[in-house]
Design goal:
CATH superfamily of the largest domain: P-loop containing nucleotide triphosphate hydrolases
Largest sheet: 6 strands, mixed
CATH class of the largest domain: Alpha Beta
CATH topology of the largest domain: Rossmann fold
Order of helices and strands: EEEHEEEHHHEHEHEEHHEEEEEEEEEE
CATH architecture of the largest domain: 3-Layer(aba) Sandwich
Radius of gyration: 25 Å
Number of domains: 2
Shape: elongated
Strand content: 25-35%
Bound molecules: adenosine-5'-triphosphate, magnesium ion
Length: 354
Amino acid sequence: MVARLETIGLSKRYQDVTALSPTDLQVQDGEFLTLLGPSGSGKTTLLQIIAGLVEPSDGKLLIDGKDATRKAAGERGIGMVFQSYALFPHMTVWDNVAYPLRMRKEGRAAMDAAVKDALEMVQMGAYAHRLPRELSGGQQQRIALARCFVYKPSVILLDEPLGALDKKLREHMQSEIRRLHKDLGATFIYVTHDQEEALNLSDRICLMNQSKIEQIGTPQAMYDQPATVFSAQFIGYSNLLEGTLEQGATGLDTLRNGRFSLPVIPQDASQTATRTLVVRPENARLANPESAYLRGRVDEVVFAGSDIRVLIDIGEAEPFLLRCGRREAPLVGDIVGVSWQRELSTVLTTAVAV
Ligand SMILES: Nc1ncnc2c1ncn2[C@@H]1O[C@H](COP(=O)(O)OP(=O)(O)OP(=O)(O)O)[C@@H](O)[C@H]1O
Ligand SMILES: [Mg+2]
């Protein structure tokens, strides 16, 4: 199957700054792909090259298998919603949404029908005659989405469209966006630096770091099998334990340092001996200190609503974070043991990033 969008060695340099290193990416028809990453990692640059707003330094962009690298922005059939939704302040909601169609010299009847549809899609039909300043932030954001959807682009790029909204409104708009994606059947590329938002919305997440793709995969795969320490730290919370791999008889590999010896699933010995073990807080449990994998003193016990977060000093630079039920919660100062199922931990070959 031909990908809807494909980049081949696509890159962008500004004098001595590499905004995007050569990037290969495929986006399938109807997919919801999220570009996730810290500030300055190249997310907006990649989106703008796809939209045709920034010219790449090198590489190719294919749309439906055809070279579109030099195609004008207006001819790509791509819609874009920016972080600051920038509605025209002196125009009503209706005129704002109609604007892209006016630019295309769409006929009156077709235009009216399309604007009506787009406003209904974002459940703002009743607000057509208001001015942007008479709307809440979330309502303005919906109008910005309607203005993009009105000409039915089959590829929609969204650059942090919910950045300006508070948490509750963000969550509400996330479910709106999920619904709109389903209704429209369009391909969405969505930029955020909020990992929770990426996990909630996406078919696949493309994690970016320092102008490169760090890892790409489904939310579940990114969470359960982080490929690098950066991924493990950026998506969800990770306890990182560094040590030296020692191979035992079949199935008895261990990771050791002066303070612990942890059983791990069998490893490929050809890589470096220094490894980092990733243990998610919800996969660890309190255990008898005499026989547990780790032993330490409880530093902090934090009530977190549905569960309790326990920070345990295990003699490493960082305390170990564990989540447990309210009834099992230990007290600060208790000596406790920590264990987990070794199948639920991940061994990485990369050194811990500093
Ligand atoms: N027009 C430009 N001129 C020079 N450098 C630029 C330009 N645009 C972007 N950059 C640089 O390229 C890098 C990537 O920028 P980009 O805007 O793609 O990051 P981003 O991942 O979208 O970050 P943010 O989350 O802050 O929006 C940054 O180091 C940025 O300073
Ligand atoms: Mg950006």
